[in-house]
Amino acid sequence: MDNGTQYVDGFALLDLYGFNFTDVKIQMYPLHTRRKIIGGALILLTVVVLLSVGAVLLVPDRRTFSKSMEKCFSSGTILQSTQCDILTFSNDHLALQLGEQLTFSLRTPPNISDTTVHLVIQHNDILQLIPTDVALQANQTSYKIEITGTSAGHSEVAVNSTNPHIDVAHAFMRVKVYKSNILDILSFTIGWVYFIAWSISFYPQIYTNYKRRSVVGLNFDFLVLNIVGFALYSVFNLGLFAVPEIEQEYFERYPRGLNPVKVNDIVFAVHAFAATLLTIIQCFLYERADQKVSMVARIILGIYSLFIAVSVVLSSVNVIHWLDFLYYCSYVKLSITLIKYIPQAYMNYKRKSTMGWSIGNILLDFTGGILSMLQMILDSYNYNDWVSIFGDPTKFGLGLFSVIFDIFFMIQHYLLYKNCNYEETPTLPDHDECDTDEDDK
């Protein structure tokens, strides 16, 4: 490239017909134009993220009780019907410190009287309730219950009644008892720190590309796998959080479940997709030599696309539920996480260089992964819940897998290829030049 002009080799197909493109010059966009394109893309992506977050925040508060409950309490009136004899708790989840005493309420419609309900504790060694038997009285709709944490752990409080006209299915509450408030605050802080670390981990690579005006050294297979993974992750989070019909499916399948998707999950997924998209845009603006998406990656993406397309069709004709479709998207995302680093690691090995692959991205990803696992360990100790790691090792295992790859990349960058200078040319060279001690002499 010289004075904003790029020389491109002749196209073999046209050479067959006598056209010689060896000396053809293609005018690149001027620097200020490229900056405007990148700036516009950044503004567009920022708008997309803000709109997505705004749409999520505007979703009305969703409750886990049935539509009959909404009807019973609509307009502030109570319908005199056995369908309205529904009991609920004032909280669906509660966290308290070991030895701490709090108060919650059992809520009932006023038409129930002369009935006693019994509060059931899943693990009696973790919680203590006073009282455990509540005599319901006419025209009283709230009953105070004292709860005390007696041992660290997780438990559930529910209600039993011998009256068949009383619906107690919605009267349940998850309770977490933690050992130390300091550890709980530390875990919360660590959660936000690794969220920030993972969120900004995309920008060192974007800055490196911008500074070098080149994406040579950044594997395109990694990029396409990454953007597909984050696209599916965004679909999963937005679908389960913002689509009432799918959320209703979830609660029908898990009546006492809590929606696992939070606002920060959506922000991270959409932001990650936008940042990866910006990196791909850079691949069209900057020098990329003869790099392209490999045939192996295209086959893998083809299999994923076929699987997702079939799942969409099956969901559309009600063969499977849309909730299952979202789960399938998450499974594809998990499989991508397991393989997406392999192309970049192999490319570094083949080039004997990490030039073009930002180490800042790896350091931030490593920091986020370590803190994520540290938070899981702290929570397991603080809540005496080691089953969350060893009983369901998927999340912990995926985090550990990513950290192992990060360590491998750091070994490549700081040890194996630290003295290797990769010469950028319009095409990838056949070899690299590495400085050795003998060369320095």
The overall strand count is 13
Helix content: 40-55%
Low-confidence stretches: 1-28, 48-83, 425-432, 436-441
Terminal Cα span: 33 Å
**Percentage of residues in DSSP E strands:** 5-15%
Q: What class would the helix/strand composition place it in?
A: alpha+beta
**Which sequence of SSEs, written as H and E, runs from N to C?**
EHEHHEEEEEEEEEHHHHHHHHHHHEEH
Rg of Cα set = 29 Å
Which strand order does the major sheet show? 4-11-10-6-8
Overall geometric form: elongated
Note the total helix count: 15
- Rounded mean pLDDT is 79
Task: Describe the largest sheet.
Answer: 5 strands, mixed
How would you characterize this protein structure?
By secondary structure, this protein is of the alpha+beta class. The chain has helices at 12-15, 31-57, 67-73, 181-200, 203-212, 220-242, 244-253, 263-285, 295-316, 322-339, 341-351, 359-382, 387-390, 394-416, 437-440; strands spanning 5-7, 25-27, 88-89, 93-97, 101-107, 115-121, 127-130, 133-136, 142-149, 153-161, 172-178, 420-421, 433-434. Helix 6 (220-242) crosses helix 7 (244-253), helix 6 (220-242) packs antiparallel against helix 8 (263-285) and helix 9 packs antiparallel against helix 10 (322-339). The longest helix is centred in the N-terminal third of the chain and has 27 residues, at 31-57. It is elongated.
Question: Could you give a quick summary of the protein structure above?
Answer:
The chain is of the alpha+beta class and 441 residues long. The protein has helices at 12-15, 31-57, 67-73, 181-200, 203-212, 220-242, 244-253, 263-285, 295-316, 322-339, 341-351, 359-382, 387-390, 394-416, 437-440; strands spanning 5-7, 25-27, 88-89, 93-97, 101-107, 115-121, 127-130, 133-136, 142-149, 153-161, 172-178, 420-421, 433-434.
